[in-house]
Amino acid sequence: MISKRVSKISSSGIRKFFDLVLGAEDVISLGVGEPDFITPWEIRESAIYAIEKGYTSYTSNYGLLELRKAISKYIYDKHGVSYNYENEILVTSGVSEAYDLAIRTITDPGDEIIVVEPSYVAYKPCIILVDGVAVSLPTSIENNFVPTYEEIEKKITDKTKAIVLNYPNNPTGAILDKKQMEEIADVVVNHDLILISDEIYEDLTYNGKHISFSSLNGMKDRTILLNGFSKAYAMTGWRVGYIASNKEIIEGAVKIHQYTSICAPIMSQMAAIEAITNGNNTKQEMIDEYNRRRRIIVGRLKEMGLNLSETKGAFYVFPSLNGYLGSEEFSERLLKEKKVAVVPGNAFGDCGEGFIRISYATSRKNLIDAADRISEFLNSLKE
Amino acid sequence: MDEILKILEDDARISYKELTEITGLSEEEIEKKVKEYVDKGIIKRFKAVIDLEKVGEEKVYAIVDLKLNPVRGEGYDLTAKRISNFPQVKEVYLVSGAYDLSVLVEGDNIKDVAFFVSDKLATLDRVYHTTTHFILKKYKEYGETLFETEKNHRLAISL
Ligand SMILES: Cc1ncc(COP(=O)(O)O)c(C=O)c1O
To answer: In Å, what is the CA distance from A263 to each residue of A89, A141, B102?
Structure first.
């Protein structure tokens, strides 16, 4: 009954593992890709107020003007890049929709899109759904999960349209330094590509300040910048994100968006306005707490002798299992024997085999208890 | 504020081991810092926040607003300090507006508090007016809400 295209995208073996986790009791989960914080009260309160005042309608397809203005100002203040709020910013239902729109806006059948792996799980399927070709570009722990100029160039053909990047990264926690970014930007410019940059974890950068690709010389026009409220403001359930790019791309994306989703929920957009204009302090408190947890888990994993890349962003670490077991067997046994849930690294691409993703978006106590259990588990493997 | 102070303010009983893990500093460095904060009086005390209702030890509290005549050269300090010295008095603030001092008084029962206000506070030389507000229910104290806490409803695993 279903189309060939849809049959091509697999929901993969990971589903089975998910069901195992969801069915298990008393599990400490380090497998969650969203904040453990509840959305700060001021933000929730502004949505309640909006509902009380009768904000229950559609908004402009582009999103509320006030929100677009606030986003434009935010990007300008942070990165010095100016996006016209009239036609260069589009508010979407999360980065999920933003990414899908970006792909559909630029991809013709047969176009190749390079996806840097390990990567967020939605990137490839959305490309396949428009008959594009998703080209995997594996990265390694030795290079901190960042691709080099040469590695990218090797994947480029005359069909290559764009490259998808996500730093700070899910699942590896990797961030980029200026030099690495410039190298990537050079390939993009030299080969006349589009860069889709998912910067949803930008605020969760624990070392220095996040630089946006759009702020690099000559990159604004080539970059489709994706960002949103889910992670930094603990607003996953609200479904608000945005695309910032040139007028042509945004106008293309709006064409799809107006027919497939019309707009992001108005009360969520109202909440997002509060978040982006007044939410800085509460956001910073959450970021500080993630950073404390990051130090705990990184320290513990190193003590256990696991091999780690530098993890300075998002709320994930991606340790190598040093060949103890494969990703899936390790994760399943850890769940069954020690009641700790992690995500097998191969869920994020073939090059993630041999790794696990640990999310530290959980309490310090949970992290410490889970680390003790992982350590016991590793010792039991050595025996 | 220093990271260590921020953490201790929230959880004074955290172990030095955990502090080490969180901050990346050595246990000796942390011990030295904490000692310094205590010596300098930056950390005044390590206290526990107790829900007295649960202990079954119900106390009565009142916010007492006072109007005073200031003293030349001293302002309100002299009287405010005298009031602060009573053990029944838990908090004392000089405030702007209709009153001068706002004082939190603790007692075993209403009579106890009422007696303290009429006998000890209202009779002070410089005090010429008091208004007593008995506290009927506490919702938030020391930044902690005292009602049922919220819970995150996220799934146990997601990508
Ligand atoms: C890299 C990345 N991009 C996008 C998303 C989806 O975010 P949103 O809630 O804005 O749709 C996630 C969520 O896990 C993510 O990790």
So the answer is: 13, 40, 51
Residue B49 lies in a domain: no
The residue of chain A with its CA nearest to that of B4 is A292
Atom number, ligand 1, closest to the C-alpha of residue A97: 11
- In this predicted structure, the answer to whether residue A13 has a pLDDT above a threshold of 70 is no
Q: Nearest CA of chain A to the CA of B48: how many Å?
A: 19
Q: CATH number for the domain including B115?
A: 3.30.70.920
The protein residue with its alpha carbon nearest to ligand 1, atom 16, reads A170
Indicate yes or no: CB of B157 within 8 angstroms of CB of A32. Answer: yes
My answer on whether B15 and B83 are in the same domain is no
Provide the residue range defining the domain that includes B20: 3-39
Query: Which pLDDT does position B107 carry in this prediction?
Result: 96
Q: Please state whether beta strands A112-117 and A133-138 pair in parallel, antiparallel, or not at all (unpaired).
A: parallel
Q: Is residue B155 part of a domain?
A: no
Instruction: Count up the domains in chain B and report the number.
Output: 2
Predicted ipTM of the assembly:
0.88
Cα A232 to Cα A56, A204, A336, A343: the distances in Å are 25, 7, 32, 22
B157 touching A (Cβ < 8 Å): yes
pLDDT at B145: 85
The CA-atom distances, in angstroms, between B51 and each of A137, A174, B45, B145 are: 57, 44, 19, 11
Q: For A64-82, how does the pLDDT look when each residue is reduced to its tens digit (9 = 90+)?
A: 999 999 999 999 999 999 9
Report all structural domains of chain A as residue ranges with CATH numbers, in order of start. Answer: 4-39+281-382 (3.90.1150.10), 55-278 (3.40.640.10)
Q: How far away is chain A from the Cα of B21, in angstroms, using its nearest Cα? A: 5
Residues with CB under 6 A from ligand 1: A 33, 94-96, 120, 166, 170, 198, 200, 228, 230, 236, 241
Residue A343: the pLDDT is 97
Q: Is B57 on the interface with A (CB under 8 A)?
A: no
